[in-house]
Design brief:
By secondary structure, the chain is mainly alpha-helical. It has one domain (about 1-220): Up-down Bundle (Vanadium-containing Chloroperoxidase, domain 1), CATH 1.20.144. The protein is about 65% helix and about 0% strand. It contains 10 helices and no strands. The protein has helices at about 1-5, 10, 15-20, 25-35, 40-65, 95-110, 115-130, 140-160, 170-190, 195-220. The protein is globular, with a radius of gyration of 18 Å.
Length: about 230
């Protein structure tokens, strides 16, 4: 299964997978939240809380399982590697977990069904991309998807019962954090895939532009019924 997925770039080129895989980058996930500022505080709060939950099993697994990545096991002539080289801490796929954190939050929230389906399909594509760029095994991707899904289910459950994250002051802090991280991403981030640098800049600027009305509403005309 790994060899089938890893051979995809031979037919499509490296550029497409370098860009797709970036949608599992945490900074890109945070940038995708920008348009929801001032509009869907419950979604932003749920994703941020879920991310804090998901990162724990991901990092603990990487630290204590420390499974070998494809580059640490396969001969170079059997591996098509795109982007950075890593040989250890393979399980689970952090990019896949991040993508499924965002997708799962949308799936569990009251949004249009088409957006839920699109988000889950996109997250699945990110998982496939981790095999295509040669950095993860299929089992890593499956593990990342499951951690992202169940961690987000817990995060959404807790977010609904911890409403302080949706108050006006909390929203401003969360928005400021997302904006700051996105500006850092524009300035210096490539996610380990230089071919995706243009995508990062373009997408981040687009998300900031879409977020402008919500930022104005939140910071300069916050609804009176929001709790501080």
């Amino acid at each position: 299964m790994f060899h089938i997925g890893n051979s995809l770039s031979l037919y499509t080129g490296e550029w497409i997978w370098s860009n797709i895989t970036l949608f599992g980058d945490t900074l890109i996930i945070f940038a995708l939240l920008l348009p929801f500022i001032g509009k869907r505080p419950e979604l932003i709060w749920a994703v941020l809380l879920s991310a804090c939950i998901v990162v724990i099993p991901v990092q603990l697994s990487k630290e204590f399982i420390d499974s070998v990545r494809p580059a640490g096991l396969l001969p170079l002539d059997e591996l098509h590697l795109i982007g950075y080289v890593a040989r250890h801490s393979s399980f689970p796929s952090g990019h896949t977990a991040a993508a499924f954190t965002f997708a799962s939050a949308l799936a569990l929230m009251p949004v249009a069904r088409r957006w839920k389906v699109a988000a889950v399909l996109a997250a699945t594509l990110v998982g496939i991309s981790r095999i295509a760029v040669g950095i993860h095994w299929p089992l890593d991707v499956l593990g990342g998807a499951l951690v992202g899904w169940f961690g987000t289910a817990m995060g959404c459950y807790l977010a609904a019962r911890l409403p302080f994250g949706m108050g006006t002051t909390a929203q401003k802090i969360e928005a400021g954090l997302l904006i700051l991280l996105t500006l850092i991403s524009i300035a210096m981030h490539d996610g380990g895939y230089p071919q995706g640098r243009i995508l990062i800049i373009t997408l981040s600027l687009a998300m900031l532009l879409l977020a402008a009305p919500g930022i104005k509403q939140l910071f300069f005309n916050a609804p009176a019924n929001n709790k501080p």
